[in-house]
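Consortium newsletter contribution from the modelling node. Members have asked for a concrete example of what our holo predictions look like. Here is one, prepared for the 2-oxoadipic acid complex that several groups have been discussing at recent meetings.
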Amino acid sequence: MSVQTITSPDAIRTLFSTAMSEMYRTEVPAYQTLVELVEDVNRAVLAADPAERHRLEAAGGLARITEERHGAIRLGTAAELSTMRRLFAVMGMEPVGYYDLSEAGVPVHSTAFRPVTDEALSRNPFRVFTSLLRLDLIADAALRREAEQVLAARSIFTAGCLALIEKAEADGGLNEEDAGRFVAEALETFRWHSRANVPLALYNRLHDAHRLIADVVSFKGPHINHLTPRTLDIDAVQRLMPEKGIAPKAVVEGPPTRRCPILLRQTSFKALSEPVDFRDGDGEGWCSGVHTARFGEIEQRGIALTPKGRALYDRLLQDSRRLVAPAADGSNAAQYMAALQEVFAPFPDSWDGIRRQGLGYFVYSPTEAGRRNPPAPGTDLETLIGSGLVRFDPVVYEDFLPVSAAGIFQSNLGDHAGDEARQDFTASPNQQRFEADLGAPVLNPFDLYAEVERASIAACLAAK
Ligand code: OOG
Ligand code: NI
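And here is the predicted structure:
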């Protein structure tokens, strides 16, 4: 195949995220309602802030602002995970980060498949938070074996999808026609199935072991369980959800509201109970039941923190939660948000403060004046900033947060999810095992951000 006919992985990713969005809006009408609310709120924010509007319109307009930034799936086997890695690679998405959720009582560990270069992220940042079920954390050995058998018998990828992954690997990419077919075939893996893979009795036993096990094992494939557009005012969307007839989770996850946003804030509406047909007792006919898994989420991203900044964030978050643990029913949501705001006071809330204390990553670039006066060899960065020749802008956080992810999982695992319904496991992070199953190491997010910052400084200091 000639190089010119290869479709860029970024373009395939955009076809894919658009197709996923269309599919999910049709499958889950409440999600369509959430997207419309997010569009209204984003429009209102931009109307009130013309400078921000101009900046964002230059970056692609309202449609681009609101479009989905991530989704999530849960897989059952190592083979599924490693094939999924190859599928996402066709779209320029690589595994970044390791998240251990066992610590929070959820029997999975996870990574995020996402674009990694600045250019690819600016074309389309769509990511998929991908979890692998950890049957090794299930105490009941007989149930574990049954679950393993059900998972071993399913194939979640279409034959056409597998063939196109191989073709992309062999040829270094796909031509336009194959790219379109690939997206259509790949979409099948993420589709909802209203007929379960297992009899109701087995579903119930899996569900009793952990709701998440039932969600992964009982279906033909790893249905996309949520999509997440970007909002410019997450507090407003959280407040307005009930007016639109959708029930928000108790609290917004992540840092408090700030002038200079850090990391990631997220909230969602609670997962819906949906009708599902199960095989009945003798496996001959069908009987009806329900399953609760699918929801909608929104996100607002801030600056990526250095290990020092992240340690401060983790400590302050822990302190806030020690002060007020957010109740699943939302009864102390206001107290929790107030505690969060107060405890985070020591975290500097100006870009320069964050920069001076080495808490966040920045990208440095020459100003107008800086372009007219290239630096003399040996000039240091602070001097250039001080004399207005170099400016700095926050690097956006592109990853996830384990405590927030746990909060999202917990509030979406079923009607009774909450503190009482928490099913605990012994925490046992196992990145080595995850990487062996994945068939590749995960990238370290800090390395990626540090490299963006380093390269930008080097470019500023390079005397012409
Ligand atoms: C994934 C939950 C994590 C997020 O935004 O933190 C996540 C899941 O429920 O499968 O998507
Ligand atoms: Ni999410």
